[in-house]
Design a protein that fits this description.
By secondary structure, the chain is mainly alpha-helical. It has helices at 26-53, 57-63, 75-84, 86-117, 123-135, 142-152, 158-182, 186-194, 199-210, 212-227, 231-236, 245-250, 260-280, 282-291. Helix 4 (86-117) runs parallel beside helix 7 (158-182). The longest helix is centred in the middle third of the chain and has 32 residues, at 86-117.
Length: 295
């Protein structure tokens, strides 16, 4: 007995069409070379600090700043670590920068919600005032702030630095977020209002989650900007126990004498925490920039 087999049609796969590779033009190669040169210029100071941080004073005097060390020299790092009590200064910078970043983002969100979405009267002039506040140099603020904090008893107190930089950073954050929230789709807000959501609920359940990438970028920038501040912490933090890392690095420099290797080691220790912070939140920063303010 013969069995009949049903022929099953075989569908032929369409051949993959390879897209022709785009040939690089001379402009593309010039752009690539320019980007490499800019990257080398940016990385050169860090490499110079790295080389001189592990170089003895004898190697520096004989070979100069560009020569590689003959042997690893850790006394400069140890001297700076013990002289300024680096763990204490590191904690002061981390705590101050973290509190400023969080408070500045929170105040910026509240201000931008009132200006950008609340549509208060004189909205344009208020944004212009925040823009002018960002253009005001810090040197012009020293004496008024010094007098004010002396009167209220916050001079030589970390909270003075926190209050000053929270206001400065939130001025920029308010200016940026007001422009972002001004273009927020009204349909989303109207739908949330029809569901019975209050303004407070709309802010924290609708607006903040949608604008989270922008807020993450602001948080990272505020932390790094506050970490790198030098003039105001130098003026308001007189006590050694309250000083931050940039102020502690300046202690090593004298009027007529400066230990280059120890100073390089101190600069390396000051850069490493911010570099680690940037590497940890690099993906968050990239997503925040590419995602845009409002999805």
């Amino acid at each position: 007995m013969t069995t009949l087999t049903r022929a099953v049609p075989v569908t032929e796969r369409a051949p993959r069409v390879r897209k022709p590779r785009k040939r690089r033009t001379i402009g593309d190669w010039l752009l690539l070379v320019g980007a490499i040169l800019v990257a080398l210029l940016i990385a050169f100071p860090f490499l110079l600090i790295l080389i001189n941080s592990f170089k003895s004073p004898e190697d520096y005097s004989t070979g100069g700043p560009l020569a590689l060390p003959t042997a690893l020299y850790f006394d400069g790092i140890a001297a700076f670590w013990e002289r300024v009590n680096f763990p204490e200064k590191l904690w002061n910078s981390v705590w101050t920068s973290g509190v400023v970043a969080v408070l500045a983002v929170l105040i910026s969100v509240l201000n931008a919600f009132a200006i950008g979405i609340g549509r208060i009267k004189g909205r344009t002039w208020i944004i212009v005032l925040f823009l002018l506040a960002n253009l005001l140099p810090q040197e012009a603020l020293l004496y008024p702030l010094y007098y004010m904090f002396r009167e209220i008893g916050l001079y030589n107190n970390p909270w003075a630095i926190i209050l000053i930089f929270t206001v400065i950073q939130s001025a920029f954050g308010t200016y940026l977020l007001s422009s972002v929230y001004g273009t927020f789709p009204k349909e989303v807000l109207e739908a949330a209002a029809l569901d019975g959501a209050s303004r407070w609920t709309i802010l924290w359940r609708v607006i903040v989650p949608i604008s989270r990438p922008t807020l993450s970028v602001l948080l990272i920038f505020f932390f790094i900007w506050t970490w790198n501040e030098f003039l105001i912490p130098l003026t308001f933090l007189v006590s050694n126990a309250n000083q931050t890392v940039p102020v502690a690095i300046s202690v090593l420099q004298g009027d007529r004498l400066m230990d280059v290797t120890t100073t390089s080691a101190s600069a390396l220790l000051g850069v490493i925490p911010t570099l680690i912070f940037f590497l940890i939140f690099q993906r968050t920063l990239t997503r925040g920039i590419t995602a845009g303010a409002v999805k």
